Amino acid sequence: MSVIDIQKRNLFRRQSELVFNNLMPWVEDSQKFVNNCTQCKSCVTSCPEKIIVQGDGGFPVIDFSLGECTFCGQCANSCQEDIFVAITETPWHKNAVIADNCLANENVYCRSCGESCPEQALSFKIGINAIPEIDLDKCNGCGACFSPCPTSAISIKENT
Q1: Non-local CB neighbours of 113 within 8 Å, separated by 6+ positions
Q2: Nearest residue to 90 (alpha-carbon basis) of 75, 71, 113
């Protein structure tokens, strides 16, 4: 199999469209993932939450608009390639990030993200409006808060 240079491949694409921004849990090396993934779809068909879809170039990616990741490990267990690291308690180093277009910043009451968070990682700073705050120690990046957000103000990103 030939080696794919992901940086060349994505030269003219927006950052949000890059394959390695939406990697599955337990994938630590994006270049190794791109080089070794055969796009066989075993991870897509094994996902009980049905949130893994075929993305750019046929590579599997997580689509949080379809739901949250429960970190069940089925994607990693079903893969026959050398892509995933051992399933551990820490599936990845991602957290939710709230953008400025959050309704709370417009003085609109909304708690959709907090109500959907199974880890209770979102709290609301009370004032004129309830501003959501993410407890990064509790947030596991599962994406449960992503889909319910009416303004698409939430994204799941690598910790920096």
Answers
A1: 96, 98, 122, 132, 145, 148, 149, 154
A2: 71
Q: Tens digit of pLDDT for each residue in 118-159? A: 999 999 987 777 889 999 999 999 999 999 999 999 999 988
Question: What's the token pair of residue 2?
Answer: 């030939």
CA-based nearest residue to 117, from 136, 93, 90, 100: 136
Q: Which amino acid is at 147?
A: S
Query: Distance (Å, rounded) from C-alpha 98 to C-alpha 116?
Result: 14
Structure tokens at 27: 């994938």
- Find the distance separating the first CA and the last CA of the chain, reported in whole Å: 33
Identity of residue 31: Q
Confidence of residue 21 (pLDDT cuts 50, 70, 90): low
